[in-house]
Design brief:
Elements lengths: L22 E14 L5 E16 L4 E5 L6 H8 L7 E6 L2 E2 L5 H8 L2 E4 L13 H11 L8 H11 L16 H13 L5 E5 L7 H18 L2 E6 L2 H7 L2 E6 L2 E7 H6 L4 H8 L44 H5 L15 E2 L20 H7 L7
Parallel strand pairs: 3-8, 3-9, 6-7, 7-8
Antiparallel strand pairs: 1-2, 1-4, 4-5, 9-10, 10-11
């Protein structure tokens, strides 16, 4: 039991300094047991959803977490917000170890760490008014802002670009983008220091996505709130996050400053993800003619991930060493401080993919070469 979890009453105290990150995650592991057998079910294995994650988030910073479906992004988000209990590793928030803190011990910081979910439809109670939805975190935490809760809710509605007069409306009266704004207002109600946004725009129309991303960016800049922004799309993170981490099968395989990651990716998987980013999002002078890399095959099962480097079954550079030894996440020579890569045979610091290295998915290749049968 951690007895030292009680935080200072003032919100300003220890609000994360240049020396001390707001959030430090170290060696974080989450394994979900897999049950099998009949008639008595036993644990026969584990989904290694998150398997040894290290990351830090500074106060006010936006940290992007990117990777394909199933690589453990949401699990990471739920561990950080302590909706899940880690199997191993530590989560330190403002200098306090909260890895295994009880609900009671978490109470003082519950308000400071909030989550925004992917689906604005299912994450709002359809039977509650917008006013009730946004004010309930204040009620639960016994917070009475000066001027009253209703005034605060109206203020929050205004901040997120909704009409304060819509206080008494129900979620179904709003569009998808507006509902996500309600979710943002609810997350802001307790003046958090950290928001974990789990694919906050994936469920929205493309035309609405930019508006919500702009709102989150405004919130981050003007209110100085740190974000862990989860996405499978590197394009969105590029606009939002100062630092980006790329995940693959429960591990971070590359992390660094946005510019360093986008201009000088060293891990083959980051190259592959970047090659899928539409060029239209890049400014003219920084848009090299990237070859599109199609990753062959599916992501292996997290129940029995490949030995050594987990990306090796899909990597065009894989050699024997990749199966035998797990590559450590380290700073390669020539890279900026803080740009770490886990690969035995990293790419040259250039974004241009080389022709001979490109693995084409056979089905996609056939499609592109017009080899498919006419309908
Ligand atoms: N409660 C659970 N019990 C068992 N397995 C789980 C549980 N939650 C997640 N998993 C598994 O853990 C792995 C990581 O899942 P997670 O949801 O974190 O991935 P993700 O990166 O968020 O994917 P997506 O992009 O699809 O949201 C997946 O294989 C998933 O099936
Ligand atoms: S370690 Fe080997 S398999 Fe893994 S990404 Fe690097 S080259 Fe590919
Ligand atoms: Mg997810």
């Amino acid at each position: 039991m951690k007895e030292d979890l009680v935080l200072p009453a003032t919100r300003e105290a220890g609000a994360g300094t240049a020396q001390e990150p707001l959030l430090t995650v170290s060696g974080l592991v989450k394994h979900f047991p897999v049950k099998g057998g009949f008639p008595i079910k036993r644990t026969v294995g584990a989904v290694q959803a998150v398997d040894g994650l290290d990351l830090t988030v500074q106060a006010g910073e936006s940290f992007g977490l990117v990777g394909e479906s199933g690589c453990g992004k949401s699990t990471t988000g739920r561990l950080i917000t302590r909706l899940l209990e880690p199997t191993a590793g530590t989560i330190t928030y403002r200098g306090r170890d909260i890895s295994h803190a009880t609900r009671k011990q978490l109470a003082p910081i519950r308000s400071e760490i909030q989550m925004i979910f992917q689906d604005p439809y299912s994450s709002l109670n359809p039977r509650q008014t917008v006013g009730k939805i946004i004010s309930s975190p204040m009620e639960i935490n016994g917070i009475d802002p000066a001027g009253g809760r209703e005034a605060r809710v109206r203020e929050l509605l205004e901040i997120v670009g909704l009409n304060p007069e819509h206080y008494n409306r129900f979620p179904h009266e709003f569009s998808g983008g507006q509902r996500q704004r309600i979710g943002v207002a609810r997350a802001l109600a307790l003046e958090p220091k950290l928001i974990v946004a789990d694919e906050p725009v994936s469920a929205l129309d493309v035309s609405i996505q930019a508006q919500v991303v702009n709102l989150l960016q405004k919130v981050q800049n003007e209110l100085g709130i740190a974000f862990v922004f989860i996405a499978h799309d590197l394009a969105i993170v590029r606009h939002f996050s100062q630092r980006v981490a790329v995940m693959y099968l429960g591990k971070i395989i590359e992390v660094g400053d946005r510019d360093s990651i986008y201009a000088r990716p060293r891990h083959p998987y980051t190259h592959a993800l970047l090659s899928a980013v539409p060029e239209v999002t890049l400014a003219e002078e920084e848009a090299p003619q990237r070859e599109r890399i199609r990753l062959a095959g599916d992501v292996p099962s997290p129940i029995s991930p490949p030995s050594g480097c987990r990306f090796r079954t899909r990597c065009w550079k894989a050699q024997d060493k990749c199966a035998a030894e797990e590559p450590p996440l380290i700073q390669l020579s020539g890279n900026r401080a803080g740009h770490l890569t886990a690969c035995h045979f990293p790419e040259e610091p250039s974004t241009e993919a080389r022709d001979e290295d490109i693995v084409l998915d056979p089905a996609l290749a056939a499609l592109e070469e017009g080899k498919t049968e006419a309908p």
